[in-house]
Amino acid sequence: MKLNWVVAALLSFAVAGCVSKSPTGRSQVLTFTNAQMSQMGAESFAQIKKQQKISNDKAKTAYVNCIADRITDVLGTQQPWEVVLFESEQVNAFALPGGYIGVYTGLLEVAENQHQLATVMGHEVAHVLAQHGNEQVSRAQLTGIGMQVADAALGASGVDNKDLYMAGLGLGAQVGIMLPFGRAQESEADVMGLELMAKAGFDPKESIALWQNMAKAGGAQGPELLSTHPSHGTRIEDLQAMQQQVMPLYAQAQKQSLASCNIARNN
Ligand SMILES: [Zn+2]
């Protein structure tokens, strides 16, 4: 009993040191450093590249890279992002701390054009920018669900529990564990992602069509993406309400000479 109290006191002391604000002003508890998160991102990406088939379709790969480049160019960081297109029917995509983007060919059937694919990539990159993976893994650590999560993340106990922190990074569907982002994180990624796509010169109106297509797609279980990125009831209304706000960003971007991202469709 006493020991528990001491542990709780130590824990709250530790937590007090790592409460910060997200880009839209939410309080976040982050217990991992950027370097630790980047390491988790790098290790998770390497593992997924081993497990999943990488697409050898040059046209589709160039198309996905073109959109990713325009989105990540907006961030103005020097460090390049690694982008991989996986050959899979999964309707899914993810982005990881450290600068990694994975897209599944199945998503190209649901995201019908460059603007819709940019919606998903902007949303995924926004989760990374807002440190949602750190928030998830921190919460798992602090609530004791996964003390192994911390061990694995800190390199203390090898690779056995990697799945747990991969799930914390929003990779639930990839690793067979469900640990969806929360509603506040989803809303934040929608807001930030919409701004990102507009600044990159993609039509923000298409974000609405994308989430409508996503809701219709994927049969009984629905698209894999929605298992880790649950749709909240007001998503479409929120995106509609934001259109006016991001239109000037889109108009501004269209004055630049941006690479044209298109794919020749056979069907
Ligand atoms: Zn999401």
From TrEMBL:
GO terms for molecular function: metal ion binding; metalloendopeptidase activity. One of its GO terms (cellular component) is membrane. Transmembrane segments: none annotated. GO terms for biological process: proteolysis involved in protein catabolic process. Gene3D superfamilies: Metalloproteases ('zincins'), catalytic domain (3.30.2010.10). Its cofactor is Zn(2+). Binds 1 zinc ion per subunit. InterPro entries: Mito/Outer_Membr_Metalloprot (IPR051156), Peptidase_M48 (IPR001915). Keywords: Hydrolase, Metal-binding, Metalloprotease, Protease, Zinc. Residues 60-242 form the Peptidase M48 domain. Belongs to the peptidase M48 family. This is M48 family peptidase. The lineage of its organism: Bacteria, Pseudomonadati, Pseudomonadota, Gammaproteobacteria, Alteromonadales.
